[in-house]
Structure formats: C-alpha cells, structure tokens
Amino acid sequence: MKVLTPADVSAGLPAAAAAAALLGKAGAAALLVLLFLAVTSACSAELIAVSSILTYDVYKAYVNPKATEEQILRVGHAGVAFYALVCGLAGVIFFYIGVSMGWLYTFMGVILGSGVAPIALCITWSKANKWGCIGGSVAGFVAGVIAWLVTTAKLNDNVINVVTSGGDYEMLAGNLASIGVGAIVAVVSSIIWPDNFDWETTRAINVPAPPPEKTEKDSDSDTPKKGSIAGDSYDVKEEADELDPVALAKAFRFATVSSVSLFIILILIIPLPLFFSSHIYGVGGLTGWVSIGIAWTFCSAIAVVIYPLYESRHALIQITTGIYKDIFTKGSGKYVDEPPKASAA
C-alpha cells in the first residue's frame, strides 16, 4: 500500500486507500458509490436550502409578497439552477488554486465560527442584544481573518499562500479568534445593554390558524386554482400537538441531556486521555478501536435509518397502499380523512 502524503490526506484519500487495501478494487468501487451518494445528498440539501431562502425569504418577502404558486415554483427552480452554477464554479476555482477539502474544512471555522455564539444566544437567551449579536458576528469574522493571516505570516517568514495558510496553528488561531471574539462581543453587549425578548412572539409564528369555513362554491372543487396565493397546508391538530409546551419541554430535556452526555464522552473522556498519554497502540489497540468504530456505525445506522422507518411505518404503509391502488384505478388511492370515531357515552 502506498504511503499517503500530507497532500493526499488533506485531499480526503485515507478512506479510499483503506478500502482499497482491505477489499481491493471492490472496496474502492464501493467507496466511490458511497462518496457519490454522500456528495449528491449533501449538494441536494444545499440546493434546496438556498433555493428556499431565495424564494421565501427574499422573493416572497420583499420582491413579490403576493406571489402565486406558479411564480413561487418558477423562482424556486431558478434558485436551484443559480446555486448549482455557483457550486460548480466554486469547485473549479478551488481545484485550480489548490484548495483541498482539508483546507476548506478548517477555513470554514474562520469565516463561520463568529456566528456560533451569537446565534446560540439569540435562540436561548432572552437578554441577548440583537445589535450586539450582529456586531459580534462581524467583529469575530474580522478578528478571525486577521489572526489567521498574521499567524501565517509570523510562522512562515511573511509568506502567505494556500500551502502556508493551511497549517494547523494558522487555522487554529483564526478559528479561536473568530469564535472567541464573536462570543465575547455578543455576551458583553447583551450584559451591558440587555434586551427583554418575549418568546411568545416566536411561539406564535407556527400557531395553527383555524381553518376557513368552506362555502358551497369551495366544496365543488378541492383542487387549488391556478394563480392562487401560495401558502402552507398542514393538519391543524397535528401542528397543535407538535407545539404542545409539555411535549416541547420533554424534548428539550432529552436533547440537552443527550448533547451534554455525547459532548463529555466524545470530546472529553475518549480523546483527551488518548492525546495526553501519547501512547502508540499495537495490533490489539487498533483492533479495539476498529471494533468500536464498527459498533458505532451500526448503532448510528439503526438510529438514523431503521428507527425512522419503523417510526413512520403507518405513513409508509398508507402511501404504498395509495400508490398500489392508483396503479390499477387512477384516483382510487387518494387520501381521505377518516371521520373521528364517536366516543362511547
């Protein structure tokens, strides 16, 4: 097996090399399929996210508030095409200037880390000052870039390029400055000039509105007319259940305990002793490490693949049944709300 250079590692080749070494060409082919699925899935999510932002947060909010469904759909498609071109162009530029995946991953902390603390404060602390959080994000970004470039120059005899700027200490300085300055500015400004945000405002955003009363004209056709104002359709009862304060508090406690526990285990208990011991493990240690990784992979697959399928089994059965009926008789698989069962007196 060829020994990977630092450039190969930064390019993301360790997994491919390991798969080829263990399974030969079949392993390399399997990893290629895996990477293709991962890249297309991630890119698809980004395309939809950016398109939704451009469509609903920009176009419908400021350009055309009375946009019809047809206009919304057209702008959404244009947003997908636009961001696809941006992604492709950025990828070509990064490739030709020598920016690797490792460089890009670590640099993301420099440009995005400043917003971590301000965003967290905005959704968890009623005293968070909005201007302080905005200023913290901007100041953290500027401080991160300055620290990154200054550290690069100091450690590399004033030579700043893609290679020298991608070092561990250079990126570490930029990441710490970005996250730290953003957090300090946001927290200090919120303590000095605290806001008093009322969370009822955010809770009211998704409160289900009572359904409009149907007229005789509306009952003639359930299909929306072409050119109607675009809006969201949802089940009122289901939406109300999802916004139940008791259920939300229970979910919040579960998420908090899970997050803190995973942080302590994965960030403190496991990595720190391995780092400070400076011990080089033999075959037995590697076997144990790989076994833990395999077990973790299976647990993750159960949690994110199998359990959601089980949780949605009723909906999947309903959808599959509807599709099966539609294959033989068009329209027979249409979902119809079942009337509520009368309770026994």
Automatic annotation (TrEMBL):
Residues 203-231 are annotated as: Disordered. GO terms for cellular component: plasma membrane. The keyword Nucleotide-binding does not apply. GO terms for molecular function: urea transmembrane transporter activity. The keyword Transmembrane applies. It is found in: Membrane. The chain crosses the membrane at residues 75-97, 103-124, 131-151, 171-193, 254-276, 288-310. It holds the Pfam family SSF. Keywords: Membrane, Transmembrane, Transmembrane helix. PROSITE patterns: NA_SOLUT_SYMP_3 (PS50283). InterPro entries: DUR, Na/Glc_symporter_sf, Na/solute_symporter. It is a multi-pass membrane protein. Residues 213-225 have a biased composition (Basic and acidic residues). It comes from the Eukaryota. Belongs to the sodium:solute symporter (SSF) (TC 2.A.21) family. PANTHER family: PTHR46154, SOLUTE SYMPORTER FAMILY TRANSPORTER (AFU_ORTHOLOGUE AFUA_6G03200) (PTHR46154:SF2). This is Urea transporter. It comes from Agrocybe chaxingu. The lineage of its organism: Eukaryota, Fungi, Dikarya, Basidiomycota, Agaricomycotina.
